[in-house]
What does this fold into?
Amino acid sequence: MPKTVLVAGATGLVGYACLKHFAAQPGCEVIALSRRKPDSTFGGRWYPLDLADAAACQALAPQFAGVTHLVYAALYERPGLVAGWREDEQIALNEAMLKNLFEPLERAASGLRHVALLQGTKAYGAHVRRIQVPARENRSEMHEQPNFYWNQERFIRARQEGKAWRWSILRPVLIVGDSVGSAMNVIPALGVYAAFMKRAGKTALDYPGGAGRVAQAVDADLLARAIAWSGESDKAANEIFNVTNGDVFVWPNVWPAIADALGMAPGAAVPLALDKEIRPRESEWAEIRAAHGLASGTLKEFVGLSFEYADYQMGYGRTEPGPPALVSTIKLMQAGFTEVMDTEAMFRKAFAEMQAKKLLPPR
It folds into this structure.
């Protein structure tokens, strides 16, 4: 059957991976939406759109007439990233963005078949307290912690009642991949940090985080394939799934692979707040960019809010191991999606992609 996938948030980690994946599928047309133009549309159609602008979403609706699948990967994050996760403004705007797009889309796209929505481990309260291990899809905290996830989920559930289209919600863990200016991508943050250490004459890359905790990650391209699967599988209809690479990691233990991918030896544990110490150094980054002919733009344009996110993920300032934040992927595997990836290989792949695109200095 003809397939047209609408990707909202096409410059983000998930949206960009989905744009790349679906555009490579035979017989699949892709429409990409984002405020900034992706560095490549991979042959898809791109429209500039601010989802906070309801009138702009309505005006663009005629272009959505043939859409069969929506991948909603758009996200609004505030400066002061972690604190913003519980703020009313962030919750309200993320809810409004989905409504602004979906209401005119549903009216225009009579052949709509599937909606994929993204959540994450904040569904289990991982950002505020110790979670049950492993976290399972039936253990979310919908009535405990304010979160835009619940607003969006309630909206989609209500709209779907009595309709032919179906939804799936995917809950990835730490997502790693190729994106520029994202709020939550550790790859540009760590790549820039390594470039500054090299500039200072260091050959070993010190670990800037705190005491490690057992965690999980997911490759953005693997997640895109899981999203594609959810749009076609009857077993994914109106279901929620955790998504991971399939293994676990601890930051200090994976650090040698990260250092090697960046052309350095692993160094000592030297805590450093990347958001405080590296983010303000725009003039030095400009010199690094010029020296290597990089196309990555300013730190604000390239790294976005991800210095803060890297500090949070690596536990800067933590002197004792944090509680494990592990989710179960049994439900996903039993439903039929069984792809896995080695997390060290994922980190190497992501850095190599950015090096090849001259976004980071060569290894």
In short: The radius of gyration is 20 Å. The first helix runs from residue 13 to 23. Residues 229 and 337 are 7 Å apart (CA to CA). The chain is about 40% helix and 15% strand.
